[in-house]
Structures are given as structure tokens and as C-alpha cells.
Amino acid sequence: MAEAAGVSRQTVSNVLNAPAVVRPDTRGRVEKAIADLGYRPHASARRLRTRKSSTIGVRLDPVQNGISGAVLDRFLHAVTEQADRRGYRILLYTAASPADEIAQFGRLLDGADVDGFVLTSTSFDDPRTEWLIAAGAEFVTFGRPWGLDDVDDPRHRWVDVDGRHGIASATRSLLDDGARRIAFVGWPAESGAGNDRRRGWREAMAAGSGLSPKALDALDLHLEDSVSVAAAAVHGLLEGGGLDAVVCASDTLALGASTVVGPGVRVVGYDDTPVAAALGFSSVQQPLEEVASAALQLLLDGESGGEAGGAAGGAADRHRLLRPRTVWR
Amino acid sequence: MAEAAGVSRQTVSNVLNAPAVVRPDTRGRVEKAIADLGYRPHASARRLRTRKSSTIGVRLDPVQNGISGAVLDRFLHAVTEQADRRGYRILLYTAASPADEIAQFGRLLDGADVDGFVLTSTSFDDPRTEWLIAAGAEFVTFGRPWGLDDVDDPRHRWVDVDGRHGIASATRSLLDDGARRIAFVGWPAESGAGNDRRRGWREAMAAGSGLSPKALDALDLHLEDSVSVAAAAVHGLLEGGGLDAVVCASDTLALGASTVVGPGVRVVGYDDTPVAAALGFSSVQQPLEEVASAALQLLLDGESGGEAGGAAGGAADRHRLLRPRTVWR
């Protein structure tokens, strides 16, 4: 190879591993020789040399039974495609529990199988992110830390979607169209994401519905994520005092609501699943392509790569809260 | 390491790479030394030594808009979990076309990134499998080759689900319950899997419905996989001569049918998606865990690993056609 290009072995190595340090004309000659000889560095040899795997670890989440479960699969698609364009591959692993996932982190890092991780499904006091921070590992999460004290932690890079803004915006649109009695069908209070979406509805309703706090409480449902449970609860509200519209924390709940409301009552779900499109109800759509792009940028480009303004090392370089949009039908 | 265990370096290497050749007591001593020293072989060094990556390449299929698209994601989950138990990892790649996927095969094999492939979504005269056979690469497909001359090709290992049997069995159950006018809502004739499912309905109806071939033709719909198209077409049949039941090639079509039939008309879909469970229609369920298990067995255990009987090298060692079951609701 070096002979064919008339350069030293070190120069060939530089072209492969640090092309910026090689003069363009020399680089062109070496690249032509590489192409002519059909040379490809063996992946494992390259990894040993560079100590980089060009591989990102992603957990494949357990299959969800709800119809919104596919959202994380769609995120995985976006991450895989965008990583591919950057020359990175995705290595999948599974884990039955946070402790099991931490054991996987250890194995993957010890074996130099991955350069870093993209995590999903963050929770209050997530032991996984604590472990990764302590281990000095590279990671980014889709989902903000839900604790009060860690959302601004500079060691935890995250991307999330502003569900509160999305639900508030959808609720305001319904109010603008004349709806007043707008119910919120959400999850129990343990869910960080669920509470955030509920807050969006509550704020928009408090500002624009003219209803009393007590009337709003009566329109605020805390349910498990089930079609039949949502259908029964919304049916109860229709019998009680009637409804103008229903805003839901998920398309599963919206599907339940859509089976009992009349044609004049609009239903808005969350996640814009194929079911929402098929049955024709509106839904708040997460910008998953943008989430994937921001996650890879935070993980791979580090603090210097942020095009978001502000001083070097600002929060915008480490955290991104993206806005969803409602698909009206 | 060798010193700590009081054995030769070759023995340590054997314990790591070919434990069966080491005496159990010696193996125990080396394994204890490995544990005491916290030793882990570097993945890349291991790969160079063994020429094996312990990694399987799987294409992440483009996101499907239909509600059955999640089936391939569920298959990916099953493959990832079962591969993990065997010490194999899944490397994801994406491809925009068969030609693009073939280029990915080349890159992954040249770099020794994967030991083999699990392919999905096979088609008539699939250029991908032809390329892999010519390259001498290890692969297995979920989906049989749909050509007339290649289904028994010993160089093409495959696992598939017998959709014809699944649809025939569901249709016979409906006939046993007294239904006679049972429509089939399927795809256009270009689909190998779709034609196979249609054949199951046709055979069961010819044997048990008492309807003429002409009457069966009128109950046999060829539609695109769309909720609204299916709803309109089934509505037409209801207006025409009435229906006792509807059997569909997908849950998307079944969802459309379920929105227009009355409570006395049973609807059976295919793939048992969360939507079928949520809306309460029956559906034929593919045994995806079994498919994943059989695929890994054919790929990793080779011809010697088949527990299916028959002479060595028999078709059962290379092809598995599994039976689905109907989930009745």
C-alpha cells in the first residue's frame, strides 16, 4: 500500500485514522492506492489501534402491549439511520431490569464493544445514569431526568420532547374553536411524563376555559393505559355533564375515548400512532427524527458541536427540549 | 494469568476459546484465576484471534405505516433476547433497497463485523439471498423463498410461518360454528405471503361452505392494505348479499372490516397486533419466539444441531415451517 502510493507506512496510517493531518494531494494519492488495491482495514484491527468501536449501544425495550409502544421502535429506526450516515453502528442489547442493564453496561464497556450509549425510558432517580456518570462513560438519554435536582446536571446529557407544551397547545386550539368542557384522560401520578402532559392541559384550561378548579378536577382522569378503562371513564363523564372534547396522555387512551364519544366531540391522543391515522382522531406527534439527531449530536460531537447559541459549556450544549406538534384530523 | 493458575498460556487460551478440550479440574483453576484477577479479554483482540465477532447482522426494516408493521419489531426483540442468551449480539443496519443492502453485506463481511445475517421480508427472486449464497456467507431468512424452484434449495436456510394453514384453520372454525358466507379480505396477487393466506381460505371454503366457485370469487377481495379501503369494500359485500364472517390477511384490513360489520359478524385478522386486542377482534398469531429460536438454531448450530428427525442433511435441518394459532375474542 505505502509502496503503491510512494509514501511511508505512517502516512497511510494517518490517511486512515487522522486524514486532517495529511496534505490533500498526498491524501488523494493514498486514497487512490487504497481504492486500486481494494484495501479495507480489518474492523477488529482498526478497533485495537484506535480504541474506538464506532458502535453505540442501545437497549431494545421490552415489547409494549399498548399501541404507543412502537414509538421507541420508531426512535430506534431514526437513531440507526442517522448513526449509519455518521459511520456509526448500533449494537442492541436487552435487559430485564435496571440492575441487569448496568451489568450489560459493564460487559460492553469492558470489551470495548461500544463507545457510548443512547438510553430511553428514564425514570425518577434512574440508577443507570448514576452508574454511567460514576463510570465516566459516554451517554445521552431520550427522556429528561425526572428528579428535581438533576435536570440541570451537566454530566447528564439529554434530549426530550416538551409534552406539557404539546398538550397545552392542543388544548388551546380546542378552546379557540369554542370547546369548554375538555377532559384530560391521563395516567396515575407516578409518571413523570404523564404529570408533565397533565400540567399542560391544566394550565391551558385554567387560563382559557373559565371553569373553576373544582370543575377542572372533575374533568381530570387518572387511569391505567387501557382502551376499555378509558372508554368506561369517558362514558361516565359524557353521562355526567357532557363533554366538548377529550385530550389524552396516549393514543391507547384516545382510542378508548374515540369509541364512546359522538361525532361532535373531538379526541386528541399522544404519539400519533398508525391507529390514530387509521381511526381518524388527532394526536400530538413527537419529532423523533429531530430527537435522534439531537441525541447523536450531544453524544458524538460533545460540547463543541452544539449549534445552539450561548457561552461554551452552556446548558443548550447538553440538554435539548424539543416541541411536538399536533396532527389534526 | 497463566502464572496465577499454574498452567501454560496455551491452556488459558484453550479455557477461553475451546473449554471442552481442557480437563475440568484445570478449567476450574483457570476460571478461578480469571475471576480473581478480574480479567476480561478485549473484544477486538478476541475477534482477531478467533476470526469470529459473535455478532449477527439484522436489517432494521423501514417503519411501516400499517398497524402490522410492529410484527418485525417484535421478531427483532425475540431474536435479540435469544441471541443474547447464546452469547451473540445484534448489529443493526439499514438499507434503502436490495442493492443497498447487498452493499452493506459486503462492508460488514469485509470488516469481519458479523458472522452472519438474519434476513426478513423475502420476495420473489430475492437478489439478496442470491448474493449471499454466491459469497458463501452464513444467513437464514424469516420468510421462505417464494420462487417455485428455490423453496427446497439446501443452500438457503429459512424459517417461516404457515399462513395458509393458519387462515384455513380459522376459516374451518367459523364454518364449524355455522358461518357460511365468509369473505376473504386480502392483498393483490403480487404478494407471496398474501396468496398463501388466500389459498388457506379458499381450500377451507371449497371443502366446507357448500358455495360455488363463482360465489367464492365474489367473496374474495384483493385490496391495498388500508383501513378505509377495507371498510368500504366490506360495506359493499354487506349491502350485496350479507356476510356471516370476514377473514383478513392483516389486522389493518380487519380493523377496517370491524368498523362496518354488525355485532353478529365475526372478524378475524392476522398478526394479533395490540389493536386486535384493544378492539376485541380475533386474529391469527405468528409464533415469533419460536421463529426466532428456529432461525438462530439454523444459523448458529448448522446442520448438526437440528433436533428435527430424519437423515443427516435432510430438509428439516434447513427449513422450518411453523404453525400459527388463532386468538379468538
Description:
- 2 copies of one chain form a homodimer.
- Chain A is an alpha/beta fold and 329 residues long.
- Chain A folds into 3 domains: 2-40, no CATH class; 55-161 and 288-322, Response regulator (Rossmann fold), CATH 3.40.50.2300; 164-285, Rossmann fold (3-Layer(aba) Sandwich), CATH 3.40.50.
- The first copy, chain A, contains 14 helices and 12 strands.
- Chain A has helices at 2-5, 9-17, 24-37, 43-50, 70-85, 98-110, 127-135, 163-176, 192-208, 213-218, 227-240, 251-258, 274-279, 288-301, and strands spanning 55-59, 89-93, 116-119, 139-142, 157-161, 182-186, 220-222, 245-248, 266-270, 282-285, 319-322, 325-327.
- In chain A, the strands form 2 sheets. In chain A, strands 2-1-3-4-5-11 form a 6-stranded parallel beta sheet, sandwiched between helices. A 6-stranded mixed beta sheet of chain A has the order 7-6-8-9-10-12, sandwiched between helices.
- In chain A, helix 6 runs parallel beside helix 7.
- The longest helix of chain A has 17 residues, at 192-208.
- The first copy, chain A, is elongated and about 85 Å long.
- Chain A starts with a helix and ends with a strand.
- Residues 304-312 of chain A have low confidence and may be disordered.
